[in-house]
Design a protein that fits this description.
10 helices, alpha/beta, metal-binding, Arginase, Chain A, hydrolase activity, hydrolase, two-stranded antiparallel ribbon, 8-stranded parallel sheet, about 15% strand
Length: about 350
């Protein structure tokens, strides 16, 4: 399997984020990218780097709101010109969008477009997000040309980013942009999100559509991030009804229960008759992950990938979460091995 990496897969990430009312060290550290790359190399993946020369704006605007994209592009420049501006952009006011008037002040825009304090914007955030998009698009192009499977190592992740808001360390929704690009060739696209947290941004983007099936297996949001979405009754609306499936699982979920949920997900993908599969791949389901609550072992990812391979679809793995750095290389090795040896 080929692996395509963002040129910025190993850059320093944001410095802090808000967790349970306290600012703590941001978990998206540079070592994450290094360990995942190490695992990809050790398992024999051919390592390629995404180009910074791709024209990305059309593909991004096919998924994201133009005003939001314009904000992300100029956010740091406008913010840093303010007196006493912080080193990273955090919103200090969250408007009620039902009644609020749009305001072009940098402080107001931060509250309008950043949904939480886990997605701070720094000097290089836009650059890094763009190259994550470049990474998945190069993977898409290769699969459209006949590759059977590719791993896209993106940083930052994308599945929490909605059409017009950033949250949860995500700014541009890499998996959603890839799905929209796949639709240029394939009739039906399935997105299977195996990250610890509900893929709320992906759900929101495709919630009214029947050509892209979205499935997320995640921690029960009753008392877990992102709290407001990811419940079983969210099934899609209009043409999208029955084309969104959430499988929330309780804290402490181990391999056996997880694989049962995955079996349900793969049956739905088979019934949908997808032409291509995107796997939003998070390793924060690992037992020691500081942002997780499941109990998967490294070998669990071998079993997960084996079940995914049985779908027999062109498959794009898109990197999402995974924050227990010491296990990341082994986790990705198990995933690739399980997929390629099935």
């Amino acid at each position: 399997m080929k692996a395509i990496l963002s040129p910025y897969f190993d850059v320093e990430g944001p410095t802090k984020f808000l967790r349970r009312g306290r600012f703590v060290e941001h978990p998206d550290v540079a070592q994450r990218g290094n360990q995942i790359r190490l695992g990809l190399e050790e398992v024999g993946c051919e390592i390629l780097f995404a180009s910074s020369q791709l024209e990305l704006r059309e593909s991004i605007l096919a998924v994201h709101d133009r005003g939001y994209v314009d904000y992300l592009e100029g956010a740091w420049s406008n913010w840093s010109k303010m007196p006493d501006a912080s080193d990273e952009i955090f919103p200090n006011i969250f408007p009620n969008r039902h009644v609020a008037q749009f305001n072009h002040s940098p402080v107001a825009l931060a509250g309008w477009y950043l949904a939480d304090c886990a997605a701070p914007i720094g000097e290089y955030t836009w650059r890094n997000a763009l190259l994550s998009v470049s990474t998945v698009l190069e993977a898409v192009f290769r699969i459209r040309e006949g590759e059977s499977a590719i791993y896209a190592l993106c940083r930052p992740s994308g599945h929490h980013a909605s059409q017009d808001m950033a949250m949860g360390m995500c700014f541009l929704n890499n998996a959603a942009i890839a799905a929209q690009e796949f639709r240029k060739q394939f009739t039906k696209v399935a997105i299977l999100d195996i990250d610890m947290h509900h893929g709320n941004g992906t759900q929101q983007i495709f919630y009214h559509r029947s050509d892209v099936l979205t499935i997320s297996i995640h921690g029960n949001p009753t008392n877990f991030y992102p709290f407001y979405t990811g419940f079983e009754h969210e099934r899609g609306l209009g043409e999208g009804e029955a084309h969104n499936l959430n499988i929330p699982l309780p804290a402490g979920t181990g391999e056996a229960s997880y694989l049962q949920a995955l079996e349900k997900a793969t049956e739905v993908i088979s019934s949908f008759k997808a032409d291509v599969l995107i796997v939003a791949t998070g390793f924060d389901t690992f037992k020691s992950d500081p942002l997780g609550c499941f109990a998967l072992e490294s070998t669990s990812y071998n079993q997960i990938a084996s079940k995914i391979k049985l779908l027999d679809l062109p498959t794009l793995f898109v990197q999402e979460g995974g924050y227990f750095v010491p296990a990341l290389s082994e986790n990705v090795k198990q995933l690739i091995t399980g997929f390629e040896n099935t």
